[in-house]
Structure formats: C-alpha cells, structure tokens
Amino acid sequence: MRIRETGELWWKTAVIYCLDVETFMDWDDDGIGDLEGLVQRIDHLADLGVTCLWLMPFYPTADRDDGYDITDFLGVDPRLGDLGDLVRLIRTAQDRGIRVIADLVVNHTSAQHPWFKAARRSTSSPYRDYYVWRSTPPPDTSDQVVFPDQEDSIWTLDEASGEYYRHRFYRHQPDLNTANPAVRDEIAKTVGFWTQLGLSGFRVDAVPFFLSDTAKHPGDDITDPHDYLRDLRAFLHRRRGDAILMGEVNLPYDEQRLYFGDSDGDGTSDGDELTLQFDFVGMQQLYLALARQDAGPIADALRARPAIPRDAQWATFVRNHDELTLDKLSDDERAEVFAAFGPDPDMQLYGRGLRRRLPPMLAGDPRRIRMVYSLLFSLPGTPVLFYGEEIGMGENLAVEGRMAVRTPMQWSDARNGGFSRAAPSRLPGPVVEGGYGPEHVNVADQRRDPDALLSFVGTLVRRYRESPELGWAECAEILDQPHPGVLAHRCTWEDGSMVAVHNLTDQAVTVPLTLADLKHDDDAPARLVDLLQDGACDVDGRGRVSLELPAYGYRWLRVVHADDRRMV
Hints:
This protein is α/β, with parallel strands linked by helices.
C-alpha cells in the first residue's frame, strides 16, 4: 500500500470539521465568538484528529443571513478579529497538522455591498452589470425561490431605477452576474488573496447557481459554464497546487458527475473542476434507511454512485449547517423521514427538510448514534463533521429557521456553556436547553470520560486515518447477506481491504458473509481483525465467516494475511 500517495492527495483521507467562528468560542467576552477564541480551542480539534478546518463566512457582513450576505470579500468581520488574527489561526492550525479552508460565497453579495450600492445609483454605473437586471415585470417565479417561507419571487423591483434585480436567495442578497468577465476577475482576486494568506482551498457555496449566468456574455471567450469552473480550478492550482474546491452541488448523481470535470464518466482521468462534492444523495438515503430500519436505500445509493476522477472525492456527512434537506426523496419517502424524526411541523423547514441534529432525532439512544457515526466514517469518501457533533449536541427549536442547529458550542456546564462570560442577551443566539443543554452535554465532561461520545468519535477518526482504503477505494462492494436491516460493505485499495457491517435495527442478528477471494486450502487463513474493539475471527477454507451484531451494532474488520505488515 503506497501510503505516501495519501499525503499528495491529502483531501481523499482528510477529516473535515466545519464551524462558525461567531458561535465557537468568545475569548474577549463581548458575546460573539472570535478568531482568538478559535485559536485557544484549536487543540480540541487536534486532539479529535481533525486534519482540515472549514470556516463558515468570517467576512464583513450585513448579518442578515448568518454571514452569507457579504459586504467585502477581502476582509474579516471586525467582531471576529482582523487579518492578523486570521493569519495567526492559519499558522497555529498548520502547526497542529490542520489545513484551513473557508466558504467561497460568490453567487451573491449583500445588498449593502459597495458594488450593489453603486449599481443602484445609475443604470450606467460600471457596477450595474455586476448584477442581473430586467426592465420588464417578471413572470411568476415562486417555484424557483430557495427559501419559500421568505420570498415569493426571485426578482425584486429597485424603485430608484425602475428595473428588477434577481436574487435566487433573499432579496437582500442580489445575484452576481458571472457572465461579466469583470465579476470573474473579482472572484479570482478573492481566491488569490486568501490562498496567499494561507488557506488550503474553499468550500464553494451554491455552485450550480453561480455558474448559471456564465457563458451568456456577448463575445465572451467562455462558451460553457463548466469552462469557468475549470478556469477557476486552474487559477487556484497556479496559486497553490494542493488547494481544493469542495462544492455544494445538490443534484442527482448523473448531473453531479459533470462538476468533477469528468465528461465521459469513466473515472479514469484526473478531474479539472471541483475536487470534492458533498454526497447529498447518499445522506438523504441514509435517513430514509434509518427511518425504515432497512439498509437497502444506503446500498442502492452506494451502487448508484458514478465513477469519478482519480483525484476527486465524495464528501460524506450526517449533518451540515443548513436544514437537513430531503429534497431528493419522493414525497412519500420524505413523509416517512418526517414521521420518524420530525413529526412536529416546527421541526420541519421549507417543506423539504429538518432543522434538527442527529441525537434528538434518534431519541438520544447512544447505541444508534454511535452506529450512525461508525457508518459515516466507514463509507468511501472524506467525512465532514459539523461542530458539536463530536459531543452529541442537540438543536434549539426556539430559534428561528436553520439557526436552530447553529447554537453556541458547549464547552462546559458553566453559564452559556462556557462559550462566553457575557450576558446571555449578548450572544449570537441562545444555547441549547433541556436534556441536550451544556449541563448534560459538554466538552469538559466528555474529555474526562473514556466512554463518552467524544472519545468514540476520536477513535473513529484515528481508525479512518489508519485505513486509507476508505478514502481511496473506487467504490464500496456491497456484500450479500440475508438481513435487510444490515449493511455489509467492503472497501479495497491495492493490498488493503476492510469489511464494515452495520445493523440498523433494534434486533440482534448473526450475519453470515462469504468473501470468495479469501478461500484457502492451507494452514494460513486470512483473519478479520476488529478495529473498534478487541477481537478477530478466522475465515474458513471456503471464505466464510459469521459475525454477531447486537441491536444497532457495528464492526470494522480489516482483512489480515499471515505476511501483512500493517498495524492493526
């Protein structure tokens, strides 16, 4: 096994951790999390085994969309710190072996951005064409809005000029016009600036939306939207060769494949567009499988994954910072997940998702919670954690919309969960209350408890990092076995191979497997060695093995031959 390759394409076996500086740690006690607070807590991430830190927007903002309404792409929100603080964070993280990436939000700006203010002053402004306008009343576009509870059209009348500007998201977030080469130059300037300061790449927000206007400018040299994505990737690599673009592309697999830059779909060449893409399809099928206690949807999703370029990767996740979208499920399937995990309409959002975290959805059952995270880390791909997942944080449904899952990090059982010593009224939002509040769920307590979820997630991180076949396997081999509620899959890369078995049901089972390539007729059988607990089992001469799983049980089993030199 060529372990050295895992350092060159580092993202294929990374462990990514997403956080919002504003809600992570407040060091100056003004009520708002800051970069210095994050620096002071960087060893928590290092101890966990995180190798890549993803920062949600830290830029100057009008703060009407939790920082995604940006007023300056080249600055730091003064509430959080300054450029010097950011550089200190990057250097400190690098010292701990952690790369830093940040959100690249170039689909839109804030309506308070100087570009849009200038664009509104005059139709002849040089910034007018930085945005998308129309002079005639728009048709009904209520079916195109991203947030149907807030907007009923993607066009809003600018009364000063009498024209309409487009906003696929909120009306205070006008869309940038990427058909304009000057806008693309500004985006390149942004990418170049932050990589020069040390970022290792970007999580790219709303990729299909920001590409939708590209190639529509008369006389432009870009004739296909993907040409622009290729140009952006090439520019990034000229500035920093090992930097990544991790894209938010919530589309069916056959459409997602194009955003890797693999037009023929054979997966044999290196990609030249996005480096990683979130596996939204797999995530949604995971929740359907959990609701049904049937592993079939996960197996189907893994089989349906298209071949991707050799240097590309799927980003796998259980939870992210937005609503838990279920938009790729059918209406009946979505209703099943709602009934299982969010039956109260207040738990649902936009008719397509849930505004809950995993532990409350699973009624706090530690067996089931651990089984889900074990499954996440065993899937082929790069796992992404949202802050607080490692300790089992819950949501606060008293907070509006998606902010229910963006509550302050819970460091201790002190006031405000140890996040800040300011008055609670000054925090960016209230801490979680009840059974998932900081008096019950916090880092300080779990650091001292070897049986806590924090310790378990740390073990998963270490075993994942020691098993590069999980990141490098071209696909997951779904293993035949008789239990519909069990997922048994195998990941193989070169001479490394691992079998993972997960029981999604509340009943104990015995799982028989046949691994045909492990048949033997000598006295040196292959063994399956447990990676998450002590133990091993031999494979018989016909390649058969029988595995015991309790309710919601799971096992990671490395295939070990007599002459293997890998650590187990």
